[in-house]
Amino acid sequence: MKNKEDGKIQEIKQTRYCLYARKSSESDERQAMSIESQINEMRTLAERENLFIKEIRQESHSAKSSGLRPVFNKLLIDIRAGEFDAILTWAPDRLSRNAGDLGTLVDLMDQGKLATIRTFSQSFSNNPNEKFLLMILCSQAKLENDNRGINVRRGMRAKCEAGWRPNIAPLGYLNVMSYNRISYVEVDKERAPIIKQIFDRVANKGQSGRTVKIWLDKIGFTTRSGKPLALSKVYKTLKNTYYYGEFEFGGIIYKGNHEPLITKDVFEKAQQQLYVPEKEWHKKLFPFRGLCKCGSCGEWITAEEKYKRYKYGRFKKYIYYHCGRHIDYDCDEPYITEEELINQLVSHIDEIKLDEKVLTNQLKDEIERFHSLRDEVLHQEFLAGNLNQFDYPQKIPIDRDTAKEYLLHVLKAGSAEDRIQIMSAIKTKFTLHNKQLTIN
């Protein structure tokens, strides 16, 4: 724009406004004007007062926390870069409901980069009184947010204490709404019988979550949205205390007023069936892993533990050796128990090539430990007066047959640690095919 003064033409810089409209989808701003309404009202104001709107920006984000609105953050960057001189918005709380963003806006005013913030009913420029009023209005919006959060939490606690969980009821129940709020919960007559059967199958019939999932798919069971129940949801359902009358909210257990679908005893039985012993990684000892190769694909034989569940919750551990399946994932070489593998290894004892030096040294160590323990026990008995003076026994000579007998003993009755040590003395390589161990 140009202006004539004292015969000279002066250039007048036009204020460049960015129209910013925001609405959050959260419950605290349900009564706020829609983004379209905000833009229409501010455009009308701009036309009436001859304001130049350089650009319109809008977003759907909450302003309760600073730095989380991408469009607003870009607006601040552009103001620092000199793209805009002023902001046009419906109300101060559209710009900020937190101290961080409010401080940034006031700081931009102090730096002279933000000349004006214009709302529908007020204007805030870079002077102390108007900046102070802007801070009061935005702080008031923050106070309303904080108080609303406290009141919401208080209301939720009160509802929990009354026996109603303040969110969507789990599968098998239906929320009854009143005035757009959850009033109470009733049993879903269509799905509740199926939920009862899920607990019965696990608690009383010992079925797994996967077995239950297969059954649910077979009968065509679906959630309220019409989708099949996912396996993760099956396990989540089985662990939900809501079904026997209690629920957790905010770290506190409450007694519910809803009708339980099962008893607490059935729930606890289901938890016992779902229990899986915790795995101890890198602590399992498999002495014969690496002893032989798979006869079908040539992969090394590996091992794993399996647990069999008996009545009354007792478990028994089994060790199985099988193909590692790294060469052929579909290798059908059958599993063999550790006991069967040991019996076959013993049957080949006369054909096995041994490192007699290693085996002899290990046997010597065992004999030394035995004599040391025996001498200590006998010495204590002598000091106690229960034994006359004794002679130390002669050392037993060690030959190949003795070493081999020691190997047999460890294979049959030794611990996993002893077997791992003794395997280093076996130099023969084996192949396992159809559960039969053969020498290469």
Any overview of this molecule?
The chain is 40% helix and 19% strand. Helix 4 (99-110) packs antiparallel against helix 5, helix 6 crosses helix 9 and helix 11 (356-383) packs across helix 12. It has helices at 35-49, 70-80, 92-95, 99-110, 128-161, 192-203, 209-219, 231-238, 264-274, 338-347, 356-383, 400-413, 416-423, and strands at residues 2-5, 8-11, 16-22, 52-59, 86-88, 116-118, 123-125, 173-178, 181-187, 246-249, 252-255, 292-294, 301-309, 315-323, 336-337, 430-433, 436-439. The strands form six sheets. A five-stranded mixed sheet has the order 4-3-5-6-7, with helices on both faces. The protein has a three-stranded mixed sheet with strand order 12-16-17, with helices on one face. A three-stranded antiparallel sheet has the order 13-14-15. Strand 16 (430-433) and strand 17 (436-439) form a beta hairpin. It is of the alpha/beta class. The protein folds into three domains: 2-147, 3-Layer(aba) Sandwich (Rossmann fold), CATH 3.40.50.1390; 173-274, Putative Large Serine Recombinase, Chain B, Domain 2 (Hect, E3 ligase catalytic domain fold); 292-439, no CATH class. It starts with a strand and ends with a strand.
Put simply, the count of helices is 13
> Over all CA atoms, what is the radius of gyration?
40 Å
The SS-based structural class is alpha/beta
Share of residues in helices:
40-55%
Q: Note poorly predicted spans.
A: none
Element-by-element helix/strand order: EEEHEHEHHEEHEEHHHEEHEEEEHHHHEE
Count of discrete domains? 3
Mean pLDDT, to the nearest integer, reads: 80
| Beginning-to-end CA distance, first to last residue | 98 Å
Strand content: 15-25%
How many extended strands? 17
Main β sheet profile: 5 strands, mixed
Shape: elongated
Strand order of the largest sheet: 4-3-5-6-7
